[in-house]
Amino acid sequence: MSSPSVNLLPPSLLHRFRHVPLFLLLFFAALTYPLMPSVNLDASWRMALGKFLMDGKQFGTEVVFTYGPLGFLMGKTYYGSGFLYQAMLIWQFFAAFVFAAIIMYWGQRLAGGRRIFYYAFFLIFGLTYDDAMQMLMIVLMGMDLVRRSSRGHDWISIGMLLLLSFMSAIKFTNLVLALVVVLISAGHLLLRRDTRNAFVTLLVYVGGFITVWCLCRQNPLNLPAYFKNSWIISQGYQQVMGIATPVAPLWKGLASAALILTYLVVNLWLQRDKLKALAYTGMLGAFLYLNWKHGFVRSDGHMVGYFFCALLPVVLFPVLLEDEHKAFRPKQWLLIPTGLLCVLGIRDTLPGMVDYGLGIFQTRLWTNVGNTFQIGSLRETYDAKLGHERQGHELLRTRDAIGDASVDVMGYDQVPALYTKLNYQPRPVFQSYSAYTTELARLNAAHYASDAAPDYVLIRMNSIDERLPAMDDSAALYTIAHRYRYVLTEKSFQLWKRNAEAFDAAAVAPRPLVRRTLPVGESWLLEEYAGRSLWLEVDLRPTLLGRLLAFLYKPPMLRIEIQDMSGNISRFRMPAPIGQAGFIISPLIQDLMGYVNFAAGQPERLTRRITIELAEADRKYFQSAAMVTLSELAPPSGGKDFFAILNKERFHMFESVPESFDSQAPPSEETIDRQTVIVMHAPSELTFDVPAGATTITGMHGFIPGAYTGDGHSNGADFRIVWSDGTQSIDLYHKFLDPGKEASDRGLIPFKVSLGKLERGRLYFRIGPGPFNDHSWDWTAWTKIKIE
To answer: Are strands 675-679 and 668-672 parallel, antiparallel or unpaired?
Structure first.
């Protein structure tokens, strides 16, 4: 006879804690630990946001970006700050707890299989992408504010409004959506003649936001500038940052949006409480529109954000909009294919997220659990990774050169400046590719023309999305070429120093040469302006249809074709706002050498012809012709010392620096007999000016051992030193070395040459190939050259 079962816990306690396992699953799925430090575009702005908060930078005036003062909480990338690390952990634990509670609060209203699908959605999809997760939480809180409107304001409503205030300071799109749901909630109360609670709703949200703003050491007087500039950069993002959308996720996105829109209209029509239905529809519509734009403007991995958000009305049916039983089945028939389309759209965007979703969830869950149990020692792992990253990316020569002086970084690679712990003081739009409207470009240029300009600037010419690098922050780059001078090059960065004398921006402003209309597809020859540096502004306005397309989706891609004087043709994307802001069109600047040549007053690759290009199918979205303005740029001189400094750096093993060199292969550093040498592969030539009073030339030359050992088969090379004053030439030194045959020719061979009575003129250090003009193994080198 079996014994009766015994409950070790009383039924009331079992009932009370029956949801704890599910809550813990949601908590650990929502929890994310800070990202490891790395060197890439996203890590740069994520780390920079944390530094800006620590430095007390003012968002809206000193920092203009799509994130607010708490943006580092979403970026959550570790870069060494103990305070920020603790702040990120506290926020992640708090957010995971609250978000899990919100998800369960809504989930308990569902029954049966719907509840299973709902929780599966959040565990596998909804909690994996921070942007979408926060937007989901904002709209769920907004919906609940409307649902609770008849009860007045309890502590839960106040708490949700304060959380909305806090999340609004993280990202500008959070602010926009939170403001929409709060205004709709307050408007709903006003229309129900509950003025008091409508006022309390607005007061708590606005008061909470201003409090958070001030706690972040932000001046509340900067809020108008923050709203204005954040709106400008967000609108510019939609017009500029778009890339081509793959067909598969696009049609699924459009179809799912159409089905949801139909569902919303049907639901609104059938609901008896029209005010509440309007509030729900407005919130959900704004939520889906913002995430549609965020996903399909960029059209990369961002698209999953839209599909995640579009699944919300599917998995929360019929609770989300409090659907009445009228037309219940037709609504389901609309939402079931919507859900299927969204899952397929996610798979089109990131296949692994669907194919291996359960495995990814399991890995994320156990990783978060493991990190939580090791949280006391976790920071050591971050510090070890940071130390490893710093070793390869610190700018040590730059740090020695500038000390504690202020420095900005042109481009989007702020990480090396942060790793080196430089006194990083950015221009307002701190990532160059984001200065994509006339207002933003002028903001940065004005900063560089003002007394607030940094003492130094690190320049790396890079861009995104097939743009001409000179399009990014072009006005600031032009100002730098006049107000700063080149100092050194380190790890693909150039360091420039601000000149001591006063700077007059008006004196070097572009001088208009011609203003004309240029039809799309028609070429414009610029040969009559050859020899001048030129600035181009292209104002191509959208049609009404184009404005509608930009509002609902994104503008078509504009391109510019540029032909240089040698006939070489290059094509670049030129989004309309960048064309309106203007950029350096001649010379064609694609890299640092192009920029420094321009800044030295020696522009290369001048532009001969330009053509505005637009696909035939897209021409209906723009006017048929653009208004273009061509201006002349004042010749800058900031780079005039570049080549002398570069040669000094390149030939640091010499005591006398050559004026120029010529070699079939780029010079490179090697060692011979433990001495640093410069390899000048034959045939090659170094040119030196003879200093006044010089009488002697000393130095050493030789072959790299690999040229004549192992697989090396050099047949020798000819070393000569020739003096010339332009009218006559005199051989001062000649030695043929064949180290493969003669042991005495190996290693470094010293030489000493007398100039006698020769004065001024130039010296040519030449290396010629050996017999039969065979220079395959002529790994020849010079070192210790001194002319005194």
So the answer is: antiparallel
User: Tokens in use for 476?
Assistant: 């600031």
Residue 733: φ, ψ to 5°: -155, 140
CB 580 within 8 A of CB 232: no
* Three-state secondary-structure class, residue 283: helix
**Parallel/antiparallel/unpaired status of strands 748-754 and 675-679:** unpaired
Q: How far is CA 448 from CA 49, 476, 481, 783, in A?
A: 21, 7, 11, 41
Q: Per-residue confidence at 715, pLDDT binned at 50, 70, 90?
A: confident
- What's 483-523 look like in SS3? HEEEEEEECCEEEEEECCCCCCHHHHCCEEEEEEEEECCCE
Distance between CA atoms of residues 406 and 55, nearest Å: 13
Beta carbons within 10 angstroms of residue 484's beta carbon: 26
Tell me how far apart the alpha carbons of residues 65 and 426 are, in angstroms, rounded to a whole number. Answer: 12
Which tokens in the block code for residue 9? 């816990």
Longest pairwise C-alpha distance within the chain:
124
**What is the C-alpha to C-alpha distance for residues 31 and 100, in angstroms, rounded to an integer?**
10
The residue-averaged pLDDT of 735-753 equals: 93
Q: For the chain, first and last CA: distance in Å? A: 113
Closest C-alpha to 52, from 234, 231, 216: 216
**Mean local confidence (pLDDT), 528-556:** 96
Q: Respond yes or no on whether the N-terminal peptide bond of residue 428 is cis (omega within 30° of 0).
A: no
Q: Percent of the chain beyond pLDDT 90?
A: 84
Whether the CB-CB separation of 781 and 702 falls below 8 Å is answered with yes
Cα 524 to chain centroid distance, Å, stands at 33
**Residue 778 above 90 pLDDT?**
no
Cβ(688)–Cβ(654) below 8 Å: no
Residue 432 one-letter amino acid: S
| CA atoms within 13 Å, Cβ hemisphere of 206 | 10
Whole-prediction pTM: 0.87
Report domain extents, the chain.
26-240+364-393, 241-355, 396-633, 651-787
The position carrying tokens 């793959």 is 246
Whole-angstrom distance, CA of residue 381 vs CA of residue 593: 39
Q: Phi, psi (5° rounding) for residue 754?
A: -90, 135
> How far does CA 392 lie from the centroid of its chain?
20
Q: Look up residue 124 and give its DSSP letter.
A: I
Q: What span, in angstroms and rounded, lies between the C-alpha atoms of 81 and 73?
A: 13
Compute CA distances 493 → 225, 395, 478, 592, 608, whole Å.
32, 9, 17, 8, 30
Contact present, 440 and 575 (Cβ < 8 Å): no
Does residue 720 surpass a pLDDT of 50? Answer: yes
pLDDT at 112: 86
CATH top-level class of 651-787: mainly beta
Q: What value does the mean pLDDT take over residues 476-500? A: 95
Query: Please, what is the Cα angle at 554 between 548 and 558, to 5 degrees?
Result: 105
What pLDDT is recorded for position 760? 85
Question: Which are the contacts of 64, defined by CB distance < 8 A and separation ≥ 6?
Answer: 229, 230, 232, 233, 428, 429, 440, 443
Alpha helices in 450-570 (DSSP H): 474-483, 544-552
| Closest among 496, 405, 410 to 445, alpha carbons compared | 410
Instruction: Please confirm whether the linkage preceding 587 is cis (ω < 30° from 0).
Output: yes
Distance CA 217, CA 429 (A): 20
Mean pLDDT over 712-728 rounds to 90
- What whole-number distance in Å separates Cα of residue 417 and Cα of residue 617? 45
